[in-house]
């Protein structure tokens, strides 16, 4: 089964808390509202992932709030040397709690 490209703006979740239209998008088309998730807050996993690529290299950046812990991660990939380095930092909620925005565009 091929992945489906989503092109129309819409809510990410339907009224039952399920993904309204599974697939991928070239731009941010989903409107995310944390209140629409039908799960305890400790089970909600939110993250933003960014990829910056150039000729022969890439940088990957993750900012996450996994309900029970937060995480920041940076990966540097060298395609020519076939190598990568990743550094991550995790904190329990008593040390850090994030209020992730509903859109990674802000």
What is the strand and helix layout of this fold?
Layout: E1 10-11, E2 30-31, E3 46-54, E4 57-65, E5 70-78, E6 83-91
Parallel strand pairs: 1-2
Antiparallel strand pairs: 3-4, 4-5, 5-6
Q: Would you give an account of this structure?
A:
The chain has a 4-stranded antiparallel β-sheet with strand order 3-4-5-6, with no helix packed on it. It is flat, with a radius of gyration of 16 Å. The model has no long low-confidence stretch (mean pLDDT 88). The protein has strands at residues 10-11, 30-31, 46-54, 57-65, 70-78, 83-91. The protein is mainly beta and 106 residues long. The protein has no helices and 6 strands.
Main attributes?
106 residues; mainly beta; 4-stranded antiparallel sheet; two-stranded parallel sheet; 0% helix; flat
Q: First CA to last CA: what distance?
A: 33 Å
Number of strands: 6
> How much strand?
35-45%
Largest sheet: 4 strands, antiparallel
